[in-house]
Amino acid sequence: MQNKALAAVLLAALAGAALVASPGARAQAPIVIKFSHVVAPDTPKGRAAERFKLLAEQMTRGRVKVEVYPNSQLYRDREELEALQLGAVQMLAPSLAKFSPLGVKEFEAFDLPYIFPSKAALYAVTEGRIGRSLLRKLEPKGITGLAYWDNGFKVMSANKPLLQPSDLRGVRMRIQASKVLDVQMRTLGAQPVALAFSETTPALRDGVVEGTENTPSNMYTQRMHETQRHLTVSNHGYLGYAVIVNKKFWDGLPAGIRRNLERAMREATAYEKTIAQRTNEAALEAIRRAGTTTVHTLTPQQQAEWRRAMQPVYAQMEERIGKDVVQAIRRQVAASPAP
């Protein structure tokens, strides 16, 4: 554990889990699923978590109670996976970059720049053999993967226009803790600073970092745009999540309850996909209307320049991620319908 305070919280939660969350502990009490995440409720992930709660409680006729904790109310980025493995929470939806510290570096492929030209190509990977194979790699870590949730393609922001790769030279950019994203920023000449999501807005406000990359919905709901004068619709990278549960808890559920929860997750996932793009488009328009941020859209020529500048990331990261994984994704993308 990183600190004594978190250890105390986890021990208390584990003690409660033995009495409340364990499926067989109290026959008449509802099975409690604590679903923790780090983003705002009014984001694709936040809204899908609430939809899953509604569906799960309806489909199990009250046998299951889902408690959703948004905005890092329980745990921050670096803490939540450990909390799940210890059973202090039962469900998370971390970004795919979070699995590398567990030793499952193959998920870093999702951070490679411009690897997915469209949502159709993305879904061909996440909903097919490759996506299922990656989720199975989490099982030895005590984690069961249930679904992939989509946020969307990322934009970049700073207090100066970012229209060509050289504009990033020397800029302190907040990133998720991801080796691929670190190399991406260094390749562009920026200075990457890995910060927890909950720390990003204060860091932008206080000048600890000068810019960031994220989806419009995350930027708007966390009010990052209020301290960023320029935003570039670069769509250079993807941000997605895996909905995961504590494997011991999941395997211990009654089979009928588990089937109903799987059905609830399928419906919540379908809902999440329908709102992800729409939510980001609305957030980008809201940022425009706020008047604090100039929104730039790259021309095809500028976009091509960004792609060329980021290509060296592949050569540096393929061995770390697994060349076979990267190549399998590229083959699947090439076989997908054109955007």
Query: Could you tell me the number of beta strands?
Result: 11
First-residue to last-residue Cα separation: 45 Å
CATH topology call of the largest domain:
D-Maltodextrin-Binding Protein, domain 2
The number of domains is 2
Described by strand count, sense and barrel closure, the largest sheet is: 6 strands, mixed
Helix residue percentage: 40-55%
Order of helices and strands: HEHEHEHHEEEHEHEHEEHHEHHH
InterPro entries: DctP_fam (IPR018389), TRAP_DctP (IPR004682), TRAP_DctP_sf (IPR038404)
Organism: Massilia consociata
Keywords: Signal, Transport
Family: Belongs to the bacterial solute-binding protein 7 family.
What report would you give on this structure?
This protein is of the alpha/beta class and 339 residues long. It folds into two domains: 149 residues, Bacterial extracellular solute-binding protein, family 7 (D-Maltodextrin-Binding Protein, domain 2), CATH 3.40.190.170; 137 residues, 3-Layer(aba) Sandwich (D-Maltodextrin-Binding Protein, domain 2). Helix content is 46%, strand content 17%. The protein is built from 13 helices and eleven strands. The protein has a six-stranded mixed β-sheet, sandwiched between helices. Strands 2-1-3-10-4 form a five-stranded mixed β-sheet, with helices on both faces. Strand 6, helix 6 and strand 7 form a beta-alpha-beta unit. Helix 4 packs across helix 13. The termini are far apart. The N terminus is likely disordered.
